[in-house]
Amino acid sequence: MRDEAHKRSTRGDRVIRSCKITESPVFAELLRARSARRLPVLDVLRSHARAILLAAGSYLSISATGYLVIVYFVSYATRNLQFSLPVTLALLQAAAIVFAASILFFAKWSDRLGRHRMIRWSCGALVFASLLFFPLIDTKSLALAAVALCGILFVQGIYIGPQAAAFAELFPPAVRYSGASLSITIGTVLGGAIAPFVATALYSTTGNSWPVTVYAVALSIISWLCALALTEDTSTTATPNGVLN
After folding, report:
1. Domains of the chain: which residue ranges?
2. % of the chain residues with pLDDT over 70
3. Considering the entire predicted model, what is its pTM?
4. Phi, psi for residue 222 in degrees, rounded to 5
5. CATH assignment of 39-234, given 3.30.300.330, 3.30.70.1170, 3.30.559.30, 1.20.1250.20?
6. What is the dihedral of CA 104, 108, 114, 116, to 10 degrees?
7. What is the DSSP secondary-structure string of 96-148?
8. Which of the residue ranges 30-39, 133-142, 144-153, 198-207 would you say has the lowest mean pLDDT?
């Protein structure tokens, strides 16, 4: 038994080692020129701090409203709206299907319409989606709750579809991964990570969902403004040698 398991493990190792993923032309040129950075995080903070902050700001409301939907909505619906847990999860699953489909659709169309343009559209539309979300679900109508969930996740899909490529274009290859990951991380920490706690505190204090709506709309406006600035001022494409056009 041990010998057979060892043989299978050995064959598996050989298969894994034989599968090689080649670098993209941009990073291959970077390696050939030996221009990789030792401390890319510090370098990108020094040279592209504005792009990082604007990209993180544009993602702020996407992350926050995403966590309000997938985390806070479960407890809010079961405790305050008297939805059963199976019904609540079914609503989220239906909205998740819409979300996944919108990501694929808009990722494809971003090549034609422009990635940063679609990010700007999504952040602008999210202002209205955030404004309507809680008023719709507070009706306790399953149909309107489904519309609210599917609508807000559809709007988020417009952003998520082109996000990876759009963020990558903001930074030269030598610091591209660090810049994009920092932007997403900062947006997540300041947005989604605290959103359920903030929403819970606001509702517990007032006994009403309107402060949560104000919170979500405020974040959406901030993200929209950041997206506008990002598109107009810092949306640049990195060339293989790391120079921004």
Report:
1. 39-234
2. 78
3. 0.80
4. -60, -45
5. 1.20.1250.20
6. 30
7. HHHHHHHHHHHHHHHHHH-HHHHHHHHHHHHHHHHHHHHHHHTTT-HHHHHHH
8. 30-39
Encode 192-210: b = buried (16+ Cβ within 10 Å), e = exposed. beebbebbeebbeeeeebe
Helices and strands, counts by H and E, the chain = 11, 0
Structure tokens at 132: 């309507």
Cα 209 from Cα 173, distance rounded (Å): 44
Measured distance CA(75)–CA(6) in Å, rounded: 48
8 Å CB contact between 91 and 142? yes
Measured from the Cβ of residue 32, the count of other Cβ atoms closer than 10 Å reads 10
Residues 6 or more apart whose Cβ sits within 8 Å of residue 14: none
In angstroms, the CA 217 to CA 215 distance is 6
Token readout for 205 is: 């204090």
The helix/strand/coil state of 156 is helix
pLDDT in tens, 165-195: 999 888 888 788 888 899 999 999 999 999 9
Residue 41, CA atoms < 13 Å, CB-side half-sphere: 4
Q: Which amino acid is at 193?
A: A
Token pair 């929209």 is found at 224
The half-sphere exposure of 75 on its side-chain side, counting CA atoms within 13 A, is: 10
